[in-house]
Amino acid sequence: MTEILVVGEAANEKLQPVVGELLAAARSLSASTGEEVSVAIPSAGGDEEISSEAIALGADRVYMIRDPLLAEPSLDAQVAAIETACRQIEPSTVLVGRTPAGRDLGPRLAFRLGVGMAQDCVQIELDDATQRVAATRPVYGGNAVARMIFKDANPQIVVLRAKVYEPLEPDSSRKGDVVAIQANLDASVIQTRLVETVNREAEGVRMEDAPIVIGGGRGLGGPEPFEMLEDLAKLLGGAVGASRAVCDAGWLDHSYQIGLTGKTITPGLYITVGISGASQHMAGCSGAKSLVAINRDSDANIFKEAAFGVVGDWKNVLPSFIETVRELVKS
Amino acid sequence: MPLKIVVCVKQVMDPETPVSAFKIDRDAKRVIPAPGIPPVVNGFDENAVEAALRLKDGGDAEITVVSAGDNFVMDVMKKPLSMGADRMVLVQDEAVEDLDGFATAYTLAEAIKKLGEYDLILCGRQASDWDNALVPLGIAEMLGLPCITMAQKIEVTDGGVIVERAMSDGYEVVEASLPALVTVSNELGEPRYPTLRGIMTASRKTPDIWSASDLGLDRARLAPSLELADLFVPVSDRQCEFIEGEDEADAGRQLALRLREEKLI
Question: How many A/B residue pairs have CB atoms within 8 Å?
Answer without folding.
Answer: 245
